[in-house]
Specification:
mainly alpha; 39% helix
Length: 110
Amino acid sequence: MTHTNKRFTGALPAGDLAGTTSVIEKLTGTTAPAPVLTTALEYKGFNRGLAQVLHVDYSQVIGELREALGITSRSGLSAYRNGQVRLRADQAAKVQQVFNRRGITEIWDA
């Protein structure tokens, strides 16, 4: 086996990628970049909603949120609450239902 001391210069030789086409190029016949999938609304933490919960209802709301998100630990809930873990759209809808039942509409942190 022979080892050569070639250094990468940041550009590939022209022949290395010859004949490669992406799926989009095959389907559309163009070299347009792939579409980026984004959600219309980014759900962040929900501390704003929790701050509006009455003290008497707080533990019940926490239990409902844990059930809605399918988590069992305190640290798991705090990660969602503080926006460290991104909510999926279905999870965000369940969280919104928990707060809407109590008349709270300003839920998501800025």
